[in-house]
Amino acid sequence: MLQRSNAVSVVDNSGSVSPQEAGVGELIDLAFAFLRRRYLIISFFTLIALAVGAVYLSVTPPTYTARAKLIIGTQRPQFIQQQSMIPDVPIDAAQLESQLQILQSEGIASAAVEKLGLASDPEFFASEGGWTPASIKAIVSSALKKLGLPEAEESTESPRGSIARMARALLGVLASPPESKPDDLDAKEAAMGAFADRLTASRVGISHVVEIGFSSSNPEKAARIANTVANVYILEQLEVNRRANRTAGTWLQERLQELSMQSAKADLAVLSFKQQNNIVAADGKRVDEQQVTDLNARLVAARAQTSDLQARLTRIQAIVGMGVDATFDNTVSDVLISSILTNLRQQYLEFTKREADWSARYGPNHSAVIALRNRIRDIRSSTFEEVRRLAESSKSDYEIAKQREEQIEKQLADAVSRFRVTDEAQVSLHELENTAKNYRDLYDAFRQRHLASIQQESFPITETRLISSASPPTRKSKPKTMLVLALAVMAGVGLGAGVALLRELADRVFRTPDQLQAALQMPCLALVPLLKGKERFSLRRKKKSGDNTLPSRSIGHDSGVHWKAVEHPLSAFAESIRSIKLAISLNETIRGNKVIGFTSSLPNEGKSTIAAALAELTAQVGSRVIIVDCDIRNPSLTRGMADKAAAGLLEVISGERTLDEAVWTDPGTNLKFLPLVKKEPVSHPSELLAAESTKKLFEQLRASFDYVVVDLPPLAPVVDVRAVTHLVDCMILVVEWGHTRTDVVLKALNTAPNVHEALLGAVLNKTDMDYIGRYDAPGKYLYHSKYYTQ
User: How far apart are CA 645 and CA 208, in angstroms?
Assistant: First the structure.
């Protein structure tokens, strides 16, 4: 990974930050920028999906769903509840869900299919899986009509006729009857399967209303079947209730005969036992029994009082055991109900608060604070003495209560001993009486139930009733046009977004300054706009009067787009070149005359154009500037500015020519240019650039000029740039917008760490200003051209 010690901190406002680091606003900007770039792809796939959805809607036959509503578990009238053998229990969610399953059961389906004769209906016969010959035939016929294919025979051998004949043959196969006719049982099972697939039963909200739905290609048939299912279910419930009442009545009649005999025997046993044991009761209760009951109640109360007093005594003794220094703030007043303790506690809390306040205000050693502490200690001592007094009082109360409890226990024991003699006979009598009473109660209850069952069987009723009959639907239920189109749009947008995202991920080039800064960890010095069409070809400079008398070594005035900065000083191109010059001027690491190198990762990224434009613009303002072509392998700058040069950098380094003899001049700006004449291939260009003679030449240039602009070779193809890092003060990396891949630049900089350290920043060249808004905030780069350029 690239490491840069002097990386400039930037605040990203576009796609250069990760979603984890971006805020909500930045994520929204990223989304809108993505849509601006890829909306054509998303729109294309959305239209394709809509077309598929439209075709599906056109060839799919409509289905109509009729709905009937039942209410289950309605409260029956009071007289019916009294006569009913089955109690009226409220229906809960589980029971209602059970009724829904019954509605969709095979029994209901079988009864409805048999009642309506659906086993012989073509729509239900042999329609397992939902596809029938009739439905397939309807789909194919609809498709033929939509495609405009002929339905009648054609004598011509046209492709339309061939397709039509094949479709008709398919329809004939689908419509032909099966070779072997299945029996009635198979036909009914197939119809029940299709019936179950089309039948739905659902609860309406949280109510007890159940909606029965049935789907069919015929709306009248759908309504008729839905009403039939509701009626079959109601009749089934009536039959279930009738069978239950009949079974219960038969069992009750048998049980009544048994209970009558058992009740009579129990009454005779009670009378006989009383006579044998001479048991007589006053007002239905024995005297000794009443005495035992009263003593037992008194004993329970005495034990409760003793227990309370003992708990109180134990707690007070525990408090006394804590000593004078124990904390009574939350224990004493809550356990002991005493006005003295309450007052002492209030004083204690008041003095404690005051002592804390004064300690914070006057200091912990103040005399008033010490007096408050002594007062608090006295209150605690008084509280302790009061608690000890209460402990003695509680101990006395506990002893008295204990003695009272013992006396009551002795009295109860005497009464129980007297009662026990006659109690055994009373227990047996109670058992006999209870038995006789139970038999009588059971007999009466069963007698009433038996009479109710007879009445209920003659008056059958169910808790379910039909509240809304199904009517033929006027609108199809399937396919739903809006739903299908919405799903098609969603699928198209999703697929388009996926393809667009793949395109986005594959676009590994530089598009915005923030992307460049985030990837290379260096500032973006300028966005140099791309010159298009007439703007590019109108840069040829007109000759001035007297141009025929110019010196022979004068720079050509029709040599390229770098003249834009001089010819149109208020253009966006000139403003971007000024940004580069300003960054160089503000670089505090360079003192005195400056030597600036321009390089790129790959050829044809525009480094020579940027270098020439900077030199021209700097020379125009009066600075002494010379531009040196050091691209020995491909001296493109020399071909553009001095294509007829006979000597240049190589001849000056070798000593064949002096600097003055090789330098070319621009008469308009006084810009100096040292070309590079390549007469034959140079074997070792990197060694030549690193030679001592080259170093002496650059020292001479630094002393003679304010700015020395050096056009260097690209980084990736050759190693020549690494040999000149000691000659320049800083370098500027030129990156072509939308063309140079990120990994290529990173690899080139990683293989040349000395070049990377010497870089002042990077320039995005050939930027399409009309297209960059799709990758960054819209309008971000429009204000310059709108208000400040010509």
Answer: 101
The CA dihedral of 344, 349, 355, 357, to the nearest 10 degrees, is: -150
CB 211 within 8 A of CB 202: yes
Structure tokens at 241: 């209730």
**DSSP secondary structure, 314-377, as one string:** HHHHHHHHT-TTS--TTTHHHH---HHHHHHHHHHHHHHHHHHHHHHHH-TT-HHHHHHHHHHH
**Token duo for residue 751:** 């293989």
Q: Which positions ≥6 away from 594 have C-beta within 8 Å?
A: 584, 706, 707, 708, 729, 730
Structure tokens at 657: 């020519």
Q: Classify residue 284 by burial, with Cβ atoms within 10 Å: 0-12, 13-18, 19+.
A: exposed
Q: What is the dihedral of CA 648, 651, 653, 655, to 10 degrees?
A: -140
Query: How distant, in Å, are the alpha carbons of 11, 413, 592 from that of 399?
Result: 86, 21, 111
93: helix, coil or strand? helix
Which of these, 709, 713, 789, lies nearest to 752 by C-alpha position? 713
Average pLDDT, stretch 763-774? 81
* Residue closest to 543 by CA, chosen among 534, 535, 554, 553: 554
Q: Which two tokens stand for residue 484?
A: 């299908």
Find the Cα–Cα–Cα–Cα dihedral 321, 326, 328, 329, rounded to 10°. Answer: -160
Indicate the average pLDDT of the chain: 76
Structure token digits, residue 432: 């006999």
Residue 464 phi, psi (nearest 5): -110, 135
Return the closest-CA partner of residue 632 out of 721, 730, 707: 721
So what's the pLDDT on residue 599?
93
CA–CA distance, 453 with 445 (Å, rounded to integer): 12
Domains and CATH numbers, the chain: 24-59+480-506 (no CATH), 287-447 (no CATH), 513-541+553-787 (3.40.50.300)
The burial class, CB within 10 Å (0-12 / 13-18 / 19+), for 36 is middle
Paired residues of 628 in beta bridges: 674, 710
Cβ atoms of 227 and 470 within 8 Å: the answer is: yes
Q: What angle do CA 132, 134, 135 make, to 5 degrees?
A: 65
pLDDT digits (tens, 9 = 90+) for 574-596: 888 888 888 888 887 776 778 99
Task: Provide the H-helix boundaries in 538-683.
Answer: 564-567, 572-585, 607-620, 636-641, 649-654, 659-662
440-490 pLDDT tens trace:
888 788 777 777 766 666 655 667 778 888 888 888 888 888 888 899 899
- pTM score, whole prediction: 0.49
The answer to whether 710 touches 595, Cβ cutoff 8 Å, is yes
Residue matched to tokens 């299919």: 113
- Cα-Cα-Cα-Cα dihedral sign, residues 696, 698, 699, 703: positive
**pLDDT reported for residue 5:** 38
User: Got the DSSP string for 514-528?
Assistant: HHHHHHHSS-EEEEE
Q: Can you tell me the distance from the alpha carbon of 661 to that of 551, in angstroms, rounded to the nearest whole number?
A: 13
| CA–CA separation, 371 and 383 (whole Å) | 18
Segment holding 513, helix H or strand E: helix 513-520
Q: List, for residues 710-742, the tens digit of each pLDDT value.
A: 999 998 888 888 888 888 989 999 999 888 888
What value does the mean pLDDT take over residues 276-291?
64
What digits encode the pLDDT tens for the residues 214-273?
888 888 888 888 888 888 888 888 877 777 777 777 777 777 778 778 778 877 877 787
